[in-house]
Each structure stands twice: as C-alpha cells, then as structure tokens.
Write a structure and sequence with these properties.
By secondary structure, the protein is of the alpha+beta class. It is about 30% helix and about 30% strand. The chain has ten helices and 17 strands.
Length: about 325
C-alpha cells in the first residue's frame, strides 16, 4: 500500500474548488492500492486532515506528518491545487528539492503555462495561433484608445495569472474598459487584454495515459452567459457537450495542435487547453495543468467518454509519477 498525499486548497480565489477536486480524487482512488491522505495547503497552515476533521501539521522539511506519535511519510503527492502555489510551479519546485514524486508537470512548465502571456509567446513560433493581445502591468498608463485600436471591441480583459475565470470581463464599450482592468488587477498585477474571437469554443484534455500522450474527446462549451465565466463553469450556466459538435477533420486538427503544445512544452500529467475555432482555424487561449477534478469538471467528463474511469485516471497519474 502506497501512502498518497492529496494536496488541495491553495492561496488563491480557487481554493474552494480545489478542496472539492481533492475530495473527488480522495473518493475515487483504489483503496486496495493506495492509502490516501487529504492535505490542506494554506498560507497559514499545511495540515493533514483526517476523517474526523482533526488536523496534524505537515513537517515541511520532508513533507511528513505525525499522528499519535507515529511518523507518516508519503510515496507520492497527488496535486489538486488550482492556482498558486500548486499550479504555478512553487509546490513542484519544493517537491523536486525534497525528491518527492508528484502527479503534475515540472516546476518550469507549471510556471510557464500559468503565465498566459509567456505561454502564448512560447507557442507562437510553433505555428499555434492566438488572439491579438495587449499587455498591462499594475502602474502602467491606461491608454483606452490605443488598447481598442489594437484589440477592437468587444474584448476580454483577464488577469495574466489566475484561473476559474476569476477577474475576467468581456468589455463592450470604451467606458467599461477601466472598470474591467480594475477588476482584473484584484486577482493579479499583470493583465492580458485579448481580441474577441467569435467562434466555437472547445476544451481539449491531453494526458499521458499508460505511457502514451493521449488526446481525450473534446468538450464544446456553449455558455448561457456572455462567456464561459465562473457561473458557467461551476453553477450550471453552460452546456458542455462531449464530444464536441465539430467535424472529424476539425477534431483531428485541434487535437494535433493540443498534443503538439503538450509535447513541445515537455509536459507531464494532466493538461486542458482552451481553443476557439474561427473560420476553420483554432486559436489557443490558455493551458491548465491542474484542471478541475470535480464531477462537473471537463477533464473527468472527457475521460469518462473515452472509457477511462476516475479511478483509472487518478491511478494512472500516480503510477506515472512513481516511475
């Protein structure tokens, strides 16, 4: 039996979703092979939380805990933290330093993909198309005319490093732009403003499954709201259609791009990339390396359609991390 620490929580607005993801992983591991432990990672405390909600501090020297005088060490960490410090490379670097296997990608890939601006810049030379964008850092002068001249209206204002659609606004008028920028700055001190792409949105899971880079069935996203925001993602305000209603040729084309991005970046573990297809051309928006693992989340939906149970999906991630 291998001891598996499932880390969840984190330091960002996404911590509540991460706790749900982590508990779904906990409930779906094969208990004949793994002994799972829920580990909450917060700024003020790192603790193992048992079934009775008792908390035991984590020793950060070796990522162990002590319960009733017995020291417990872990064979592997299942990373279910969305946002910082689980998705931006901080935990990955820490685990590499203490030589602890973990299920996510390596620290450099995590930091790169978490930074939307840097990710898209790295992928552009490989022929991967992206929206027209404009960058702002906190303190920069906001020239509304210059921004609109470059990206047009409507446009999207996004925090550069955040997930679950926190801080994102769709802007229809010049007057709304400064408000949207202020909203994004609440999540991050860097902003990316992108042209609006009017097309079909698809989400593409790519995983290493049993040693082979595998593109999962794609999900088409039809939001009831103005875009795929927090409500659409988590409160049922969207249709998520898996497999997506796109042609076989387009499915192959988008899948090849998502797989290429995964391989170019030397990714490991899970990834979920978002694309908008405009006039038969896929444009990449971002890549998530700790995608949601809740029952409503896209990647588990895609795995189910591919005939991969959650137990297999999560067990596979652990086994690959232990290689």
């Amino acid at each position: 039996m291998k001891n598996i620490a499932i880390i969840m929580g984190g330091y960002s607005s996404e911590y509540k979703i991460s706790l749900i993801s982590g508990n779904v992983v906990y409930q779906n591991l094969d208990y004949t092979q793994y002994n799972p432990f829920c580990v909450h990672i917060f700024k003020e405390k790192w603790v193992y939380v048992d079934a009775d909600n008792r908390e035991y501090p984590i020793d950060k020297n070796d990522f162990s805990t002590t319960v009733d005088g017995t020291k417990i060490t872990f064979d592997c960490v299942f990373n279910a933290i969305h946002g910082t410090p689980g998705e931006d490379g901080l935990m990955q670097a820490y685990f590499e330093l203490i030589n602890m296997p973990q299920t996510a990608c390596d620290y450099y890939q995590a930091a790169l993909t978490f930074n939307k601006r840097d990710l898209l810049s790295v992928l552009k030379p490989y022929g991967i198309k992206t929206a027209i964008s404009y960058y702002l850092n906190l303190g920069d002068e906001i020239n509304t005319d210059e921004i609109i001249n470059k990206v047009g209206l409507p446009c999207f204002v996004k925090p550069n490093k955040a997930g679950s659609s926190f801080g994102i606004s769709k802007v229809h008028t010049a007057e709304d732009l400064p408000i949207a920028i202020e909203t994004a700055y609440k999540e991050d001190n860097e902003i990316i403003i992108e042209s609006f792409l009017d097309g079909t949105e698809v989400s593409v899971g790519v995983i290493n499954y049993k040693g082979t880079v595998t593109v999962l069935p794609m999900t088409e996203i039809v939001s009831e709201n103005d875009f795929f925001d927090y409500e659409a993602k988590y409160l049922g305000k969207s249709q998520e259609i898996t497999p997506a209603r796109i042609s076989d040729a387009m499915t192959t084309k988008v899948g090849a791009i998502a797989k290429r991005a995964y391989e170019v970046l030397k990714m490991k573990g899970f990834s979920r990339s978002e694309f908008i297809i405009v006039d038969d051309e896929p444009y990449m928006l971002e890549m998530n390396t700790i995608p949601g693992m809740t029952n409503e989340s896209l990647l588990p939906q895609q795995a189910t359609v591919a005939g991969i149970s959650l137990q297999d999906l999560f067990g596979n991630a652990i086994e690959l991390a232990l290689l």
